[in-house]
Amino acid sequence: MSExxxxxxxxxxxxxxxxxxxxxxxLTVQEGELLAVVGRSxxxxxxxxxxxxxxxxxxxxxxLLRGHDVAELNDRQISAVRAHWxxxxxxxxxxxxxxxxxxxxxxxxLYHGIAARRREKLAEAALRQVGLGHRLHHRxxxxxxxxxxxxxxxxxxxxxxxxxxxxxxxxxxxxxAGAGVLELLHxxxxxxxxxxxxxxxxxxxxxxxxxxxxxDGRIRTDTALGAAG
Length: 229
Description:
This protein is α/β, with parallel strands linked by helices. Helices cover 32% and strands 27% of the residues. It is built from 7 helices and 11 strands. It has helices spanning 45-52, 75-85, 101-107, 116-129, 145-157, 175-190, 202-205, and strands spanning 6-15, 19-29, 34-38, 60-65, 68-69, 86-90, 163-167, 195-199, 210-215, 218-222, 227-228. It has a 7-stranded mixed β-sheet, with helices on both faces. A 4-stranded antiparallel β-sheet has the order 2-1-4-5, covered by helices on one side. Helix 4 (116-129) crosses helix 5. It is globular. 41% of the residues are buried. The model has no long low-confidence stretch (mean pLDDT 92).
């Protein structure tokens, strides 16, 4: 079996004031998995996302990406890992309002040393991959919420990352648009993309192949293990 994409080994995170957001978390994400990390607000799931995405470092324990211990990487290496290995999708979309869909996606490739013409071609290909070939030159205000989220997903997949971390990707969408985004995530997974979805919605989590439940900073259940964590 190949090296896991993400490994958490006894990971805890304590913030100033003694707030323990995550406690002794063990988690392995294999290449090609689609899983939900589910929990209510304050459960620790967002902290887990930040640690998996190298946006924060653990207080104790180890976070490994493709077998590389994040604690052993300097800031420049961490930035490179984040840029090349991890695709982020956030609830708020974070699209530049004055830019077209192609320009928004191409902007995510700026730090990859890719020529402008090539960036545009990759952006167009990613948008077509998520079903937005007819919206290449539309700006965010000209698109629906579901189309804006698909644009954000296209920006994440354009770099061909090792893993996509999606934080409440349907949280700002109506039920129809949310179902469309969930269908897209399943399609990307079927093509081999590794995806971790962070959600408070147990209904959404139930529609993914693997579910990891976080409560009070601890992993309570993981369907990959078939028992309490």
